[in-house]
Amino acid sequence: MTVRRLTPKDLTAFRALWADGLMRVPTAFLFSAEEVRAFPNKDVERGLEVNLTLGVFNDAKRLVGFVSARRGGPKRMRHMADIGPLYVHPDAQGQGYGRALMEAVLQHLIDAGVQQAELVVDVENQGAQKLYQALGFHVFGRRPRSVLIDGAGRDDFLMIKALDGADLTRDA
């Protein structure tokens, strides 16, 4: 397995895997399949240049998973980053690809001086929750109707991890 930052050269494979994830697990993504299809390639390429998006490749050098992270924009929020989405193709799940992606993205954030990482996860996605908890994330809130999918509200858990050793559970 190889984990590396995705670049505009990975556009075709990235878009194909993203589309696969949107089809299989629409609750794992903020954007709908229709919205993603409407994004011009130049915008997706720009996102790969600006945001941190890591891909994991199997031994056959096929992209089987990805994770993205965005650092806070305003100066007062630059100490934190949002992680997501994380997606691993079902054929590659249970083989450590998701963990490898998360460990790599967390290390990138630590190296960049980020103090905390946050993410959201569908309340019914227990597999992802187990992974995030094993990596030191904890739930600090629940967002009702975080997204509407086909008119139905889906709740998300808000999860956080200190990357600098701070105790973020004191008020939880």
UniProtKB/TrEMBL annotation:
Keyword vocabulary terms for this entry: Acyltransferase, Transferase
Alphabetized InterPro entries for the sequence: Acyl_CoA_acyltransferase, Bact_Acetyltransf, GNAT_dom
Signal peptide interval: none
GO molecular function list: acyltransferase activity, transferring groups other than amino-acyl groups
Record keyword Acyltransferase present: yes
Domain N-acetyltransferase intervals: 1-164
Entry protein name: GNAT family N-acetyltransferase
Species annotation: Marivita cryptomonadis
